[in-house]
Design goal:
Blueprint lengths: L11 E8 L7 E7 L5 E8 L3 H15 L7 H15 L6 E9 L2 E7 L4 E5 L4 E5 L17 E4 L5 E5 L15 H12 L4 H16 L8 E8 L5
Antiparallel strand pairs: 1-10, 2-3, 3-4, 4-5, 5-8, 6-7, 6-9, 9-10
Helix pairs in contact: 1-2, 3-4
Amino acid sequence: MLPKTTPDNKDFSIETFIRSSTEVGGDYYDFFTQEDGSFYSVCGDATGHGTTAGMMVSITKAGLNGIPSLPPNEILNRLNKVVKKVDLGIIRMSLNIVHFKNGTATMANAAMPPIYHYSAEKKKVVEIEIVNLPLGGLLNEEYELAEIKFDEGDLLIQLSDGLPEAPNPGGELIDYKRLFDCIEQNAMKSTKDVVESLVEMAEEWLDGNINPDDITIVATKKNTLKE
């Protein structure tokens, strides 16, 4: 279900992490490389767990295979109609899509957590929040598009809500403030180190408990060209 490799692109470093809370998880990530060398990065989360959530992930993956080179919001508009017509009852699919092309990252978000962007030039992390319903909600939902410059040294993080909503033994969640702080403190490091720092934060917070939800992280960094 998940890709065995990340896009073979010398301009980018990509690190992924996924941990399912059940045998059949509802989280999903994937990459789709285009003929022009650009690529889409997808991160999703089906409601619930088990077989039905797995079916939703399969439908989503099938709908994205052979993905046309369209703006991410138009892809979500089309995919939403497919998911809605299949009708898996109350099961929904949260999903974000980022298209990395020509020094930009264009993105759309169907009810996933914010996407985090670290600007190497400004040395600053910003939270990109796009508010839309999950796939399978309303048939005519119109998904919004956001676009940012994505320069050398910049970092983009897509993730599922299993990370910010991980509870400690007392029931307190990590929450988005701690998540933001961890990204901010590690954003200048390699994608591998950034992902490891987020996973370590989650494990320390859980303190031996099993997380009730899946955790997925996709970190993409634009490499700095050597002179």
